[in-house]
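FIELD: query
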Amino acid sequence: MESKSSKNKFYCLYIKTGCEWNYVNEIQPVLDSSETPCNGKLYCLGKRMRLKNGKEYIDTLFQSYVFWETDSLDGFSFLQKGKGFIKILPQNNEPKALGNEDVELIQSFLAYGTVMPILRVSFDINDKIQILDGLFKGQEGHVKAVNRRNKRVNFEVELMNGSRLIGLTYEVVKKTETDV
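FIELD: result
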């Protein structure tokens, strides 16, 4: 999948944990204003989760990260005024765009929207799985933890030169054959 414009790049903003959604709601209207020197779209990726009592809520997929798609860094300092802003990674004075693999991962999530639905699965720790539907469709990973009572699973994905553990509620994946 390609970005909306070939010159658009993705940057990662480091936001105080718990402030990600509010930051996007506060700053996106400023980015959309014709008076702002830079533009773009902010994305906070989330996952729909279910409590033991059945109540559903939306949790942040990558805590403290908001992704910014833009074609220009001109005047980006106004981003620092948003509540909860810590820095643009790796440093405010030298922001670096995400690499191609990271951009592909973020765009694959965005193809299904910013909030991942609940998925149903059946597997064990260390099983290699492939997600068949939803935000992670086509992604493979190794199961790190399974909570059958709460119907949750943790698995690893590669993002920004490191492994990130993702926990989600499940519905549709398949176990893949591992080479022995």
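FIELD: remark
The chain has a mean pLDDT of 81.
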